[in-house]
């Protein structure tokens, strides 16, 4: 899952990126509102963490422009301790949740998991497809109750497919959602990750939809 972090304070931005990287997300960062608005308009993200006090274009303006353009990605805004009016303005502008600074990183990660789950129509922190269970909190996968060892990119591919069970997911979609930056992407590696996952998971779990992509289904 791919996250855009918009924060102009370098230390906090670094802490957010480190925590999200460790949790298995692909992270893109921006330190001003103009770059954030551009990235949101041209790139694909599963969620956004948006500070409101940004240089060059404030966060509320960025969010308002995104929503006016039809961008529906879940957005978590970061506000100052005494900025209750910012919280109200942020929610009215289209934010999905907010967090007051300072905050515990564990709470931010929990809120991000919840936003992404809700966007995909999932209520539980654990996603299941037949005998395969992916725990979004612990970043672990099990098969019939036994742990499955996955690389970070294999986990990202499976997580995206699990969040979109029954849907056809193209290689382009997978590329856009598991890598942080354009220069990291190589469409041929998606086939490699899918092939490795098929060796570790039940036969028939990941279907190839010829000419379109892949679909995660409960094996018969």
UniProtKB/TrEMBL annotation:
Provide the residue ranges listed under DNA-binding region in this record.
124-218
The chain positions of domain Response regulatory read 2-116
Q: Which residues form the OmpR/PhoB-type domain?
A: 124-218
GO CC terms = cytosol; protein-DNA complex
Biological process (GO), any one: regulation of DNA-templated transcription
Q: Which InterPro entries match?
A: CheY-like_superfamily, OmpR/PhoB-type_DNA-bd, Sig_transdc_resp-reg_receiver, WalR-like, WH-like_DNA-bd_sf
Q: What name has this protein been given in UniProt?
A: DNA-binding response regulator
Lineage, please? Bacteria, Pseudomonadati, Pseudomonadota, Betaproteobacteria, Rhodocyclales
């Amino acid at each position: 899952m791919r996250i855009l972090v918009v924060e102009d304070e370098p230390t906090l931005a670094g802490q957010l990126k480190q925590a999200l990287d460790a949790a298995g997300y692909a992270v893109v960062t921006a330190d001003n509102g103009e770059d954030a608005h551009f990235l949101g308009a041209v790139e694909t993200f599963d969620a956004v963490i948006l500070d409101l006090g940004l240089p060059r274009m404030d966060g509320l303006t960025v969010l308002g422009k995104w929503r006016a353009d039809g961008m529906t990605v879940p957005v978590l805004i970061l506000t100052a301790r005494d900025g209750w009016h910012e919280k109200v303005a942020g929610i009215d502008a289209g934010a999905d949740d907010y967090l007051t600074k300072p905050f515990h990183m564990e709470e931010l990660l929990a809120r991000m998991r919840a936003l992404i789950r809700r966007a995909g129509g999932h209520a539980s922190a654990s996603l299941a497809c037949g005998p395969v269970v992916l725990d979004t909190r612990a970043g672990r996968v099990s098969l019939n109750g036994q742990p499955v060892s996955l690389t970070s990119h294999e986990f990202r591919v499976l997580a995206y497919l699990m969040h979109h069970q029954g849907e056809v997911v193209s290689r382009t979609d997978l590329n856009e959602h598991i890598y942080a930056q354009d220069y990291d992407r190589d469409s041929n590696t998606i086939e490699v990750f899918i092939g490795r996952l098929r060796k570790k998971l039940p036969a028939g779990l990941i279907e190839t939809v010829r000419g379109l992509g892949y679909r995660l289904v409960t094996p018969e």
